[in-house]
Amino acid sequence: MAPPARPYSIALPYSVASAPVPLGPLVSRTEELLAAGLAEGTRRSYEAPQRRFVEFASALRGSLPVFPVDEATLLLFASHYFDTYAPNAASVRAAVFAVQSMQVRAGHPPFWSQFRRLHQLIEGMARTVPVAPDSRCPVTYDMLVAAHRAINHSSVDGVVMWAAMSCAFFGLLRVSEFTARSTSSFDHRRDLSAADLSFSSSGDTPVAILRIKRSKTDQRGVGADVVLPHVDAAVCPHCALLRLASLPRTTAPHSTPLFEICGTPLTASAFNTRARRILRALGFDVSRLTSHSWRIGGATHAARSGLPSHSIQTIGRWRSDTYRRYIRDPTTIAVHARTHMVPHTSSPHFVAAPSSSTGSTARSRRAA
Question: Are 38 and 73 within one domain?
Fold first, then answer.
């Protein structure tokens, strides 16, 4: 049985004699709010496994309805998915949750906590095929320094790209936090705009503040400030943002992307392509560099510089200890940590953001 045409469809189990409000608009609004309960990226990632499950279950069950899902069908589908599409436990688990989302959408209760054999099956997959090491390479501090020397800082595009690269590295940013989804879909309610950049001071240290309105772990739009202090180095992110803020703007700050290339919003694809091109021309191997390499590189550099793990978690805005997977040099970090168990050991320097609480007493001025 195919899923409903609309993502969510409200069907009342009784006939309505009269309604206190117009029922049609209320139903539409309810369906809209239900759909908003899943992030757009999550909905996209669920599409393929959901389609595959409907095809599998329909062939298996014949004329019987697909939902509610029974455990046996789900066990067989999970094994089929593991052998056919994704031979790793994490992908199968994600596919199972995609199916559960369909089950909830169809008006049935979630099943994950009930199907204990499904848990055991996925554990068996994890033991059969261990998780492969993360092959993504970090952007290093040396790569960043070399890129700064190579970029043409007298051109507008050069100023924009350097500001984006330094912010991505020192701010431990996800690429989705500072780029637009496409060159034609900039949304100031979600995307980083020129109005989201401000400058303040923490004590005697000038700082730049990026207001991240939404992120992967903040789908409700609570927002977070990424604080980038001035440092006496050529790669200073505060200096890069000051230079960016001095560029002339033809539209209001709130409706202007903070990062624009050739007059259009900087997208993740454009950022990755240009950054890889710059680094490749400098002789670096970029075959395993991805958009996450900047966040990985910033976390690794922070750890190598002696920043405590709780500080890395704070400035990277990780809610759990998953940040540990981003640090690519555990041996150096272990040696550094143990040598610092001895009193009076000096600590290497790293550009660390001060606590966001300093912003409440800082002298602020908004970037034009």
Answer: yes
Residue 16 lies in a domain: no
Angle, CA of 283, 285 and 287, to the nearest 5°: 140
Alpha helices in 228-292 (DSSP H): 237-245, 268-281
Domain count, the chain: 2
Range of the domain at 63: 23-128
Please tell me what DSSP assigns to residue 257. Answer: B
CA dihedral angle for residue 113, residue 118, residue 120, residue 124, rounded to 10 degrees: -140
pLDDT tens sequence across 142-165 = 999 999 999 999 999 999 999 999
d(CA 309, CA 330): 12
In a domain, 61, yes or no: yes
Report the distance separating Cα 81 and Cα 96, nearest Å: 10
Asked if 238 and 206 count as a contact pair (C-beta separation under 8 A), the reply is: yes
- Cβ atoms of 299 and 323 within 8 Å: the answer is yes
From start to end of the chain, where are the E strands?
197-202, 205-212, 224-229, 260-261, 264-265, 365-366
Residue 208 β-bridge partners:
199, 228
Residue 348 amino acid letter: P
Tens digits of per-residue pLDDT, 24-72?
Answer: 888 888 888 888 888 888 888 999 999 999 999 999 998 889 999 999 9
**CATH number of domain containing 90:** 1.10.150
- Closest Cα partner for 259 from 184, 181, 180, 150? 180
